[in-house]
Amino acid sequence: MLTAVSQQPLQFQPGTQYSYSNSNFFALGTIIEKLTGQSYAENLNQYIIKPLSLTSTYYSLPPAGQSATGYTNNGAGLIPAILWNRSAAFAAGALSSNIYDLVTWDNALINGKVVSIASFKTMTAANGFAIPGGGSYGFGLALWTLPLQP
Fold it and tell me: pTM to 2 decimals?
């Protein structure tokens, strides 16, 4: 994957436009594995999932009793969606969780338990380029201001 990405020409000069790409997350996962000598999944478990007590968050597929069945429309009606090989997403995805663990994750991220408060402020500072449809992008986070509903 990294070889394929590195051989592609630039779409524009860095720092002049915005375009989302998963390749940087893929590169980050590879760097983590090289530096630690452990798989990305082992790092997630050791440094994120276990310390934050995310009991319903999985890098692999969750147990059958804890996962929803997805559906897709094949033109004739809804059919169960095909489960794709989650390892293909590597560090750019492949996680499953539930709402309780997502709230726990958000609280930990916001309150300095995942990255420092200073790093979180950098993550939530707009990079100056608009996301199509509104919003901006920080370091790893899409930034949107949503109107409050009465």
Answer: 0.79
